[in-house]
Structures are given as structure tokens and as C-alpha cells.
Amino acid sequence: MAQGHVLIAGGGIGGLALALTLHQIGVPFTVFESVRQLAPLGVGINIQPNAVRELFDLGLGAEDLDKVGVPSREWALVGRNGADIYSEPRGLLAGYNWPQYSVHRGQLHMLLYHTLLARAGADSIQLGQEVTGYRRNADGTVDAHIRDANGQTRTVSGGLLIGADGIHSQVRATMHPDQPPIHWGGAVMWRGTTLAKPIRTGSSFVGLGSHRHRIVFYPISPVDPETGLAVTNWIAELTLDNSEGWKSAGWFRRVEIAEFAHHFADWRYDWLDVPDLLARADIAYENPMIDRDPVQTWQDGPVALMGDAAHAMYPTGSNGASQAIIDARTLGAMMLAHGVNADALAAYDQKLCGPVSELILRNRGAGPFGLLNMVDERCGGIFDDIDAIIPEAERTAFMARYKAAAGFAIEQLNTAPPTIPAGARIRETVPA
Q1: CA distance 329 to 324
Q2: At 7, which helix (H) or strand (E)?
Q3: H-helix or E-strand containing 250?
Q4: What is the DSSP code (8-state) at residue 53?
Q5: Pairing between strand 253-255 and 230-239?
Q6: CA distance 144 to 130
Q7: Considering only CA atoms, which of 60, 63, 58 is closest in space to residue 18?
Q8: Torsion over CA of 333, 353, 349 and 65, rounded to 10 degrees?
Q9: 169 Cβ partners below 8 Å, 6+ apart?
Q10: Scanning 39, 81, 339, 409, which has its CA 20 to 30 A from the CA of 209?
Q11: Residue 22's closest CA among 14, 149, 68?
Q12: Which of 311, 431, 329 has its CA nearest to residue 19?
């Protein structure tokens, strides 16, 4: 392939967002994805306003995102006693220039995939092709080692290689061969969806319980006008003793509701029946809450990491997919500024690696759910008046610090110029 050609390892949300960005600015690329056929896998995720802004700038507007999710109106934490700890408006209601979206992860993935095929053609992505490692060349290019679905191997050369191949990234393993194993802090998540009547604003993200035992739920579809029900995503979480490590055979498995529902058997309120919510789910999945320790750099010459390959983090702040989209757009902006070369990757690494590494650790400390930790520490999770436990000003300041660290503080985001100016196109693809 041409020296200015970008090889993208992984066709997940981050890899496809990068492919669409490169197509937008005129950089040749090829995506290599290990699965033979992409399918709408997963359940609900949140896309923060900073990432929604980037999707809009990619030409994916509200009419597109409304097909895969719903705009979020509220974020709320509720104590085990059913009383509010904190709530705030989200998206446009909070004053952002862009909405926040609660979406079905698989449907968003397929939206990006079909958009890429329509814009760049079927040759832009090769399925059943896994990047297993790489080798840097003396001329500044990089060879990607690729294994197909039948076990056959080959080498593809390109100007740059971007590892968007997830938490089990082979590109990262080549770049950092001595990295520690995947980190599990003890929390287990059971995830699923249920048709349910939305509560509060009708599009609220609610975290209920304590920092060691909680359920999170939010709608990811519009309300059906005939039934009054919406597809509601839920995550039931419990923190266990992790001293012996994760004992399950895999990191993600289908489970029966009865395997975990007893942990929430008495969680009934006049506004929510958690056992009923779980029991009516068609399917549930179990996976540990895992991340990776930060690394000092995401770059190795003409190779860079992005998305979960760079910064797999606990999903406590709804930042995983959002940050992957930001990564993609930042890479595109740096190529516009420096060319399609290692200098662009160095600028990307310098801009994001440090701050996002801090976000990994902040999420490991419970992220915005850290308010639940504070409630537990100060009153054991039992309270009549939350203001007597954590004053409103302290709760608001806590959330403001998190939003600033995650890159979606309102004023900071609303006044920021576009990451990639409209109509911007690359002019040079020379190596550094």
C-alpha cells in the first residue's frame, strides 16, 4: 500500500470513527477487522456531548442518532433508601450546544459501519482479518502482521498503523510487551434490556444503591405510543472479593437471570420494582468491570493506539465510546496539522495520553459514582437529608471536577472551536 496509507486495526466504534474521519479529510486507509461479519452486539452506552459534537461534524446528525437511541435529559444518583443524592440535567437541557445520547451500542456500531460503506466503499474494510502485531521499517513505514479467519498469515505495509483493536489489543501487546495483565477491581456487572415504563424525565440515567452494590438503568429507545414502554438498558453491579482473580472461563458470557437476581430481591420501591425489571429481560450477560493500567505512551514511531487499546477504563463515567470518538477526531486533526506521519501521532499522544490516563484512574476510583462512596463513608448509606451528609455545593463541585477531567465541561466545550474545521483536507502524506 502507499506510504501515506493508514492501516487501522479494529473495526469497532473507535476504528470506524477514525475511518470516517480519514475519509472526510482525504487520507487513504484500510480497516482490518477480525470478525467475519459485523453484527449489532452489546447493550446500552452513553455518548457524551463532546463526542456527539464530533459525530455531528462527521455528518451524522440527530436524525441518524435518533434511530439508534434517545437524547438524555437527566443524570441522577439515588440512595438505597430510594432518596435522591444528586441529579442534574444533561445534554441540551444542561446548556450544552449538543445533546447527550443513550444508545444501543450495536446499533450505533452498525450506523457507523453502513455509513462508511456508503461513503468509502466495501474495499475500505476487510473482515475476517486480524492484526496480530507489527514491525517498524527503516524507511519510517510499518508492516502489519495479519491473520485471516482461516489461519493464513500475511504482511501489509503502510505509512501508519493505528491500533483500535480493543482491550485485548495485539498492537498494544507488541508496543508494550511487558504490560501488566488486565486489572479487575472486584466489581461484576450483569447487563441486559427490558421493555419498561420510563421514570422521572422519561429519559433519565439513574444509578441506584451504593458504590459496592447498585443498579444503573436508562432508556435507549423512544417510548412506544401504544404500550408506553421503552427499551430500557440496565446494569446490575456487585463488588466481590477479587483476591484470587477472575475465575470465570471468559470475560463476557450469557447468563440466566436467576444466577444474580437474588442480590436485588428486596429492591422494590413505589416508583421502581427492580426484581420485576430483571425478571422480564429476554437475555442477560455477565462480565467483570475491568481496565488496564495506563502506559506512558500510546505511540511507537508510525504506530499509535486509540480507544480501548489505549485506555480501557471502567464504564463508571460513560466515557469509553465517547473517548474513542474523540481519539479518532484528534488523530485526524493532528494529521491535518502535521501530515500523515509520526509527528502527527506524537502530537496526538502528547495531547491525550496524560489526561486520559488520569481519567482511567479517576474512573477506577468510581468516577462520578464516587458520590456514592462519600455517602457510604459518612453515613453508611442511610440518610434522611442528603444536604446534612454532603452539602449541595460539595456535590456540585465534585461533578464539575469530573466533567472537566472528562472533557465535557459545558463552557469549555461550548466555546471550543471544531476539532476539524468544515471542509478541511489533507495536503501532505510524507513521513516524519
Answers
A1: 9
A2: strand 6-9
A3: none
A4: H
A5: unpaired
A6: 10
A7: 58
A8: -30
A9: 9, 10, 163, 305, 308, 309
A10: 409
A11: 14
A12: 329
Look up residue 406 and give its amino acid: A
State how beta strands 125-127 and 29-33 pair.
parallel
- pLDDT tens digits for the chain (432 residues)? 667 899 999 999 999 999 999 999 999 999 999 999 999 888 899 999 999 999 999 999 999 999 999 999 999 999 888 999 999 999 999 999 999 999 999 999 999 999 999 999 999 999 999 999 999 999 999 999 999 999 999 999 999 999 999 999 999 999 999 999 898 888 899 999 999 999 999 999 999 998 889 999 999 999 999 999 999 999 999 998 887 777 776 778 899 999 999 999 999 999 999 999 999 998 899 999 888 999 999 999 999 999 999 999 877 666 789 999 999 999 999 999 999 999 999 999 999 999 999 888 877 766 677 788 888 889 887 888 999 999 999 998 988 887 777 667 788 899 999 999 999 999 754 444
